[in-house]
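Bug: token stream looks shifted between consecutive jobs. Job 1:
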Amino acid sequence: MDWEQARSRVYAVGLAAALPAVDKPLDEADGHTLAEPLSPRTDLPAFVTSSVDGWAVRGTGPWRIVGRVLAGTTPAPLTEDGTTVEIATGAMVPPGASAVLRVEESTRTAEGCVDGVLRAAPEWRLPGEEAAAGEELLPAGTPVDPSVIGLAASCGYDTLRVRAQPRAALLVFGDELLTAGPPAAGRIRDALGPAVPAWLRRYGCQVRPDDVIGPVADTLPAHEEALRAALADADLVCTTGGTMHGPVDHLHPTLAALGADYVVNTVAVRPGFPMLLARVVGTDGRVRFVAGLPGNPQSAVIALVSLVAPLLAGLGGRPMPVLPHATLAEAVPGRGNHTHLALVRLDRAAGTAHPVRHVGSAMLRGLSGADGFAVIRPGTSGAAGDRVPVVPLPLLPGERTC
């Protein structure tokens, strides 16, 4: 399947299976997604608020001091011309006040009054100046980060209605894999078992240490048992390796035994084409997903950004990720009829993408210094100066690219 078509298809099936809405306290909402629009419960500000430290005055000066207003209190009205109360920034302006005089622009008279020249513009914030009660500030589908949490608190919320975070598991396939120590005697160190859960957490998944299983023995019964067990609790199960049809590649027959149907089965992209996404409907009627990641580490990450990222956006009720663009600093070759995802480092100040070295599908050195993948569409090549889409690598919850 064409790479762009695959992204669109997995997003659509994810959105159709969007996770239920739950209420989360503000201090637990970071990394979730709004399930309904965020609107203030009152006008913001809710009352006339002094924007400076100074004096709330009535009429013309000099003004006789009759009190003080601090933030968090409800002041008595000013009823007489020529009177004033000291006022703090953020305090409620007393009814009857005609202006606020900045403290640094005021003087004390010999009689103990306050005098000064008022500015033409009011030194207060009016109700609804930032937002009106009920006005939509953020739509459903907005990722919750610290700025959203702060805005929600200012709007009067104690909890937020958000999408439940997907629970993910990882099955690592391959008898040749070591889980400790250096490679030796024909066996290689598993790099995906430690890395993939961290990528999934950056996409907003819950992954516990005991959700990572493997290496699973290279037999069909072992694959079936492991996948059935993982699907009992997870919304998404990622697997590493076994996506082809070699003598010990048992993922496809395992999916057949579970009655899964393919959403995507191989993608016209290089590296990483033998990726897949399958859908499994449990006995409880709930839809779960299996993402088959190729065994080569960089190819596995390409499968994550190509299939898992849009799937999780759909499950979270978020919009389809829009790819930023950058200008190629150097030429990047095409891959014939396949989309080429080329590792690049971004110079965000200059808006340029620089290809990195050590980018074989089995290598992780180039990935460790990259910010994402430049997209070279089928039948084309990238010349220096071309503007191309970039698939960013996932960030920590709450982080934003420049």
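Job 2, same session, no restart:
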Amino acid sequence: MAYTPTIRQAVGDVRRCLADIGITRQSSVLREHGRHEPSPDAPLVLVACSGGRDSLALASITATVCGTLGVRCGAVIVDHGLVAGSSAVADEAAGRCRGFGMDPVIVRRVVVPSTGAGTEADARSARYDALIETAIEYRAVAMLLAHTRDDQAETVLLGLLRTVGLDALAGMPRVIDRDGVLFARPFLDLTRRQTTEICETRGVEWWDDPTNGDAADEGGLSTDLPLRSRVRHALLPYLSHLTDTDLVEHLSRSAGFAQRDKDYIDERARSVYERVVNHPEDSSSNSPTVAARIDAAALGGEHPAIRGRVIARALAHAGAGASSRHVDAVDALVANWHGQGAVRLSSAYSACRQGHVILVCHDRVHENR
């Protein structure tokens, strides 16, 4: 099989990704070249595969790498049922993954609920739920996602359009623990053009999701397209032309530096959180329940970047969905308190300061009226 420079890069990226999360060669015997059958108790790595070029390229490369390491390699295909023929697409993707030698190959058919967040967000939530459930069921050590450098650049722009702060600039992390399942992205240094090349070189046919649209749809600006598709087909090409730079490369590299800084701040905030926040057990169903206690005196001496993260995490853990304005208002109770009243949060939650403690409360009586 031909090993082009792109395929060699992809193999190296997958190897490094697996090594970074502790997945290495299972036996010194496997130093010999060639594919090796893994033992039944070898670690299992799963690849989330949609049938598109990115995920099929990742599945193909990962199957090759795992075969040299003596690691089991499988795939999960989630059928959202949102486009005509999706069941057949899922089955075809499963067949290709089996052709790579992957085992197990699991097809999950899900019903995408309508939560009001939009079809794209609802589908993503349903997909992650299915991936997490499958990874836990099969005791996989990791789930690999096929996001590329292009996806990273799009995510940064989407983050800047939708929210504010360092988290938007950081884009997608290379590794993240979600509900006890380790997700990793080996291809963040590869472009979509390169994943296409991998598929073409290896003779792998792929499926293009019609909901992604293309530049022919009003120059990529059609409001019938998801926002990510408009960013992909219109905004990114326009900005690259305007600046005469490879904006995908620039944004993805910037995301790497921002992620490094974010990791440090998050770790610092996590340490402070454990020291200044506690969540009492629910003790009453007929009166306001204290969902979190924040030591305002201890938190007040921290940097605003740390305070904001601690507050946001405390509110999220308590179940009080909070915007940046809510976090800023609670932060004022910490760092600029002059006797102001309670901060009203969403879902019948509030935060008030009593002495040196901020209480995050849930008014169940109010909620049930």
